[in-house]
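Q: I have 89 residues here and want to know how they pack in 3D. Can you give me a structure?
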Amino acid sequence: MTSNGSFRLQAGGPGGTVNYTWIYKDTDANGNTVVTTHAGSLVVAAGDAAPHSITDSYSQPNSAGTMQLVFTSPSYASPQLQQSWTCRQ
């Protein structure tokens, strides 16, 4: 499964490093919740207000579940960034 997200910083902003975490939640064969996280960062130049894309891969989910992209620095998270998936055999 490939996840895609994007963000923009405020025009005229100071720039800096944007840190983020993808959080994947699904269920294993025994019914236990499985949480997998992938963290990353991207440096944005001062004044850069262009969209920046982030892509991540999560292989072999165990079941239907959710994925959320959380920006950890600068601090920002949105419920609209949470998506569900369905596994097909």
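Q: Anything worth noting?
A: The chain has a mean pLDDT of 81. The chain has one domain: 2-85.
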